[in-house]
Amino acid sequence: MKMNNLKLILALVVIPLNVAWGLEVSGTGSKISESLLQEWGKVYATRFPGSVVKYKGSSPAEGIRRLLNNEVDFCSVDTPLSLDELKKNGLVQYPLVLGGIAPVINLPNVSPGQFRLDAKTLADIFLGNIKKWSDPTIVLLNPTLKLPDMPITIIHRTSPIGLSTVIGEYLSKAHPQWKTLKGDTMAGNWPIASIVVNDPIENFQMIQKTPYSIGYGPVAVASKYGLLYVKMKNKAGFFISPSDDSISSAALNSKWVMSNGFDVDLTDQSGNASWPLSMASFVVMRNSNLNVARRKELLKFLRYGIRFGTLNATQGGYIQLPDVVKITVRSNLDQAINEK
After folding, report:
1. Structural domain range at position 24
2. Between the CA atoms of 17, 19, 21 and 23, what dihedral angle is there, to the nearest 10 degrees?
């Protein structure tokens, strides 16, 4: 009997850690990805009892900092790290879902999608070169609208120094002055007086209550606030509205390969129907981890979310990766999972 009891105790001891006590993986970073990663975490825990994936939004810069300090297992970013950055820090990244940034305005007597801008004019507004809604450059782009002779109020988010942003990359491509002053970021001093906010929600709330203002933020969040999005002129010369199809078009016109670290810039992509401020959210993780079990669990979680998390993504206002991109990403995740 004593021998049988000893065998039972030993059997309990060798139960895998993630089954007996739970294997917890944690991450932080972009707030844009927060609701999706949290929802995927809930679904994954239901499908695989004992596995816990926790995510709390902060900022991409904070996420990267905490990842490099080994405080979390992964982070989420809205613009991909370059292959050099990944190699330097021993990291890898995988795209999760698509999204977009939209310029939004608070103007009277204008319907969604009526107001039009191109990249250079948007940059000139943010640079202070264009100060009024009735500026001839804006009027030329909107000949059918009666635009007010009122000053433009700019509302923008704070942004850490050195962190590339979707809209910063877009403006730097279109306007040499922007590239000289701010590079591909929205950080640092602005050349014109503006209202500064901390996050997308506060940004849209401020635009809502500030007449004659312009700002920007995630397409999915803007639509929830009923704000007026701006039609933007894309690389092919067409004025495009932000939508699932126009953002997917930008992704389909891009090259997704692991050999380049999935460093894909979706801004100003080719394609007649492509939204020029498209983006993808990425998960960044260490290329190797002292805790092999946690790293494999994270890889399995990502594979599961990309394959089966479509409904969660669309219900949350996110846009799934095109099928051809999903296949590529899942193949690389499978390879990483099977590595010894």
Report:
1. 16-99+255-265+276-338
2. 70
- What predicted TM-score, i.e. pTM, was given to this entire model? 0.89
**Residue 10, in any domain of the structure:** no
State the Cα–Cα distance between residues 33 and 35, nearest whole angstrom. Answer: 6
Shared domain check, 115 and 245: yes
Give yes or no: residues 69 and 114 share one domain: no
- Please say whether the beta carbons of 16 and 296 come within 8 A: no
Contact 263, 81 (CB under 8 A): yes
pLDDT in tens, 274-283: 999 999 999 9
Q: How many residues does the chain have?
A: 340
* pLDDT for res 22: 61
Is residue 186 classed exposed, middle or buried when 0-12, 13-18 and 19+ CB atoms within 10 A define those classes?
Answer: buried
Under a CB-based contact definition with an 8 Å cutoff, are residues 161 and 185 in contact?
Answer: yes
pLDDT mean over 206-231 = 91
270 in any annotated domain: no
Q: Which residues pair with 228 in a beta bridge?
A: 105
Q: Which tokens sit at 184?
A: 């591909």
pLDDT range class, residue 199, cuts 50, 70, 90? confident
